[in-house]
Automatic annotation (TrEMBL):
Source domain of life: Eukaryota
Record's protein name: Activated leukocyte cell adhesion molecule
Pfam entry (one): Ig_2
Membrane-topology annotation of the record: Single-pass type I membrane protein
SMART domains per the UniProt record, alphabetical: IG (SM00409), IGc2 (SM00408)
Primary localization: membrane
Species assigned in the record: Corvus moneduloides
Subcellular location: Cell membrane; Cell projection, Axon; Cell projection, Dendrite
Length: 542
């Protein structure tokens, strides 16, 4: 504390004192201007704590609350005594406030002790304010009750502020941050210090029950596993519920989940859950999608060629289903219909259906159709271009595939081994090349499990001309061949009719020509006779 007086000329000494509350002085330090010595009075509170400089500045070490006094600097000359006071204020910053005796949990609609905010060792005394989410909590009857206590330590003179908060929470206080701030004074003015925020577990009763279907798929199909989950919005949430299943009058007590495995279509319906006291109920509707397919006939079916086979694929589903047919791994454009079975109708048929809106719901059944037939044979022959051999072909139909044998009656050389074409749609052909030295008979024998068929063909010697028969056409060109045959027949018939008409016309013409000739001859004869008569008459006249 600098002495607020100017040091006068003729100064003898200077002194410092402080004033008691009753105004009486207590001297604590003395310094002579001439002897340059310093003396400190025997005052216990300031023992070994004082220092007085040459310019009469008084320093006090280890400031205490008790140092808050009115100190006076005195400068003495022979003629005068000057005094000037210095008022000392002492401040002590409190410790950081902390919230103690915190409640374990808070229950709504109930006024309860939230905690105590304590700030210690403050001077002068401070003030405590409660905050929630950064906003001041103002006292409200039976909702916010604040009680502040300030206790002074008689030894140190420091204050401890304790503020208790009673609070009635609501659901909105979940995750709310409570804190307190102590306001105190320092040399530079008012200051504040804040506690660490505290979040309390707020308990409140359930007000709404919700039922869910897990997994949360838009569609459920037969065979799925379903978990019903019931939840309440209270804190803590309810741990037990009653589940009501369609067709059951009483609720099933369970935890917050109820599991149904491998559900069937009869599980479709309304499901409910409630608290165990049967209050606050919620419901949901579950639709279990299904898909049935009935293929008639199915499995392996064996029929004879030419027979009829009705085929039906019946669908029963919870939604409109898409149906398609597959034959031998190729999708068909239309459903199969067999009024007269052919060998090409044989194969593996699949009727498949799906529910497009329901993932994974797909059904299929198969029909393995076998078309059997006794061997049928047609033989053809042709003279090869070299005019040295003939090719004899045995066209065979039948299923199971017939085995083919050849026999030759007569003299002739078989130039090549028997060759067979690929067996397709119950048809194939076997051929041999022969150079017959004389008329021979070739026999084709086709045999399967159903029958043995034998057909023979006479083949002239290679040097004897004969009409060769065309080879059989393939199935793919059968209609074209038939049409061509019909055209040829029509042309032939037309030519025959033209020839017949031409013949009739010619016959009529010839007949008419002969008749005319007779008349001409007759006329010529009459002319000759007349000439002879004229000549005779002329001679007689002579």
């Amino acid at each position: 504390m600098p002495c607020p007086l100017e040091v006068p000329d003729g100064l003898m000494f200077g002194k410092w004192k402080y004033e008691m509350p009753n105004g009486s002085p207590v001297f604590i330090a003395f310094r002579s201007s001439t002897k340059k010595n310093v003396q400190y009075d025997d005052v216990p509170d300031y023992k070994d704590r004082l220092s007085l400089s040459e310019n009469y500045t008084l320093s006090i070490k280890n400031a205490r609350i008790s140092d808050e006094k009115r100190f006076v600097c005195m400068l003495v000359t022979e003629d005068d005594v000057s005094e000037e006071p210095t008022i000392v204020k002492v401040f002590k910053q409190p410790s950081q406030p902390e919230i103690l005796h915190q409640a374990d949990l808070l229950e709504t609609e109930k006024l309860q002790m939230l905690g105590e905010c304590i700030a210690r060792d403050s001077y002068p005394e401070g003030n405590v304010t409660w905050y929630k989410n950064g906003r001041v909590l103002q006292p409200v009857d039976d909702v916010v009750v604040i009680n502040l206590q300030k206790i002074v330590d008689r030894t140190t003179g420091l204050f401890t502020m304790t503020s208790s908060l009673q609070y009635m929470p609501t659901k909105e206080d979940v995750n709310a941050k409570f804190s307190c701030i102590v306001t105190y004074y320092g040399p530079s003015g008012q200051k504040t210090m804040q506690s660490e925020p505290v979040v309390f577990d707020v308990h409140y009763p359930t007000e709404k029950v919700t039922i869910q279907v897990l997994p949360q798929s838009s569609t459920i199909k037969e065979g799925d596993n379903i978990t019903l989950k019931c939840s309440g919005n209270g804190n803590p949430p309810p741990q037990e519920f009653l589940f009501y299943i369609p067709g059951e009058t009483e609720g099933i007590r369970s935890s917050d989940t109820y599991v149904m495995t491998d559900v069937r279509r009869n599980a479709t319906g309304q499901y409910r859950c409630s608290l165990t006291d049967k209050s606050m109920m919620d419901s949901t509707t579950i639709t279990v999608h299904y898909l049935d397919l009935q293929l008639t006939p199915s499995g392996e079916v064996t029929k004879q060629i030419g027979e009829a086979l009705p085929v039906s694929c019946t669908i029963s589903s919870s939604r409109n289903a898409t149906v398609f047919w597959i034959k031998d791994n190729t999708r068909m454009q239309t459903s199969p219909s067999f009024s007269s079975l052919q060998y090409q109708d044989a194969g593996n048929y699949v009727c498949e259906t799906t529910l497009q809106e329901v993932e994974g719901l797909r059904k299929r059944q198969t029909l393995k159709l076998i078309v059997e037939g006794k061997p049928q044979i047609k033989m053809t022959k042709k003279t090869n271009t070299n005019k040295m051999s003939k090719t004899i072909i045995c066209h065979v139909e039948g299923f199971p595939k017939p085995a083919v044998q050849w026999t030759v009656t007569g003299s002739g050389s078989i130039l090549n081994k028997t060759e067979e074409t690929k067996y397709v749609n119950g048809k194939f052909s076997s051929k041999i090349v022969i150079a017959p030295e004389e008329n021979v008979t070739l026999t084709c024998i086709a045999e399967n499990e159903l029958e043995r068929t034998v057909t023979s063909m006479n083949v002239s010697a290679i040097n004897i001309p004969e009409y060769d028969e065309p080879e059989d056409r393939s199935d793919d060109n059968s209609e074209k061949v038939n049409d061509q045959a019909k055209l040829i027949v029509g042309i032939v018939v037309g030519l025959l009719l033209v020839a017949l008409i031409a013949g009739v016309v010619y016959w009529l013409y010839v007949k008419k020509s002969k008749t005319a000739s007779k008349h001409v001859d007759k006329d010529l004869g009459n002319i000759e006779e007349n000439k002879k008569l004229e000549e005779n008459n002329h001679k007689s006249e002579t």
